[in-house]
Design goal:
Blueprint lengths: L15 E2 L6 E2 L2 H13 L7 H12 L3 H14 L3 E3 L2 E20 L14 E15 L2 E12 L2 E6 L4 H15 L11 H10 L7 H14 L3 H14 L1
Antiparallel strand pairs: 1-2, 3-4, 4-5, 5-6, 6-7
Helix pairs in contact: 1-3, 4-5
Length: 234
């Protein structure tokens, strides 16, 4: 940190000037870096009004450049910004093989009247998906339960991301913050995030990140591999 760069902005090389010679231009990948820094750099509350002008002055850009950087980020970035955190989906891993299960057919369930067999074939599978929060790698372990054309997941409670999931689920399903002996609180989650070098989160941020994780836990590539495993098992 220096007097000329008090916020530790990344040094980036301009590609030139805009048509009116009022601002620098940058490569798309550098525009993404400029956009991300608006949200990811920790700024004291008393410096918030000074931060954006300092960013524009450092890179010699204007408001239009910032608007374009947002468009580029949405178009080509492989991550998302959730308030003051960047989150990215990593690779998946299937641990072990399919474990065959059996679900007994409930004759009293009218929704299942079309089911001829007395048992529905089902499988469980242990899986892992890697996520990155502010470039910190965090694994997310879950059991996948496959039955017919449907599936459900059961998240473990080991990593901080998994604990965030259960923290949100308990709040919404039981309308409490942390009344269980082994449950997590907002404070305990933020302590674990701090040990990983990740800035603290509020309830809204945690909710949004958990929603992002649930939306991205299974992708097309994973579905293709699961279908192959199921075909081989039949």
């Amino acid at each position: 940190m220096t007097d000329n760069n008090p916020y530790n902005f990344l040094p980036l090389q301009p590609t030139g000037r805009n048509e009116t010679d009022t601002a620098n231009t940058y490569a798309p990948e550098d525009m993404i870096k400029i956009y991300e820094q608006q949200f990811l750099i920790s700024v004291p509350e008393e410096k918030l009004t000074e931060f954006l002008p300092a960013l524009k002055e450092f890179y010699d850009i204007d408001d239009h450049t910032l608007d374009v950087s947002a468009v580029i980020f949405e178009a080509i970035a492989d991550s998302s910004i959730i308030y003051n955190h960047k989150i990215k989906v990593g690779d998946y891993q299937i641990v072990g093989g399919l474990i065959e299960e059996a679900i007994e057919y409930d004759e009293d369930n009218k929704e299942d009247e079309g089911v001829k067999d007395k048992e529905i074939q089902a499988y469980t599978l242990e899986c892992q998906r890697t996520f990155f929060i502010n470039d910190v790698e965090i694994p997310y372990h879950f059991n996948l339960f496959i039955y017919g054309d449907g599936y459900s997941t059961l998240t473990k409670k080991q990593t901080v991301l998994e604990k965030m999931y259960w923290f949100v689920r308990v709040r919404y399903e039981e309308n409490l913050l942390d009344d269980s002996e082994d449950g997590e609180s907002l404070e305990s989650i933020n302590e674990q995030l701090d040990r990983l070098g990740i800035r603290k989160m509020d309830l809204t941020t945690i909710d949004e990140i958990v929603s992002y994780v649930e939306d991205n836990i299974i992708d097309d590539a994973m579905v293709d591999e699961l279908n192959k495993l199921l075909d081989d098992a039949e």
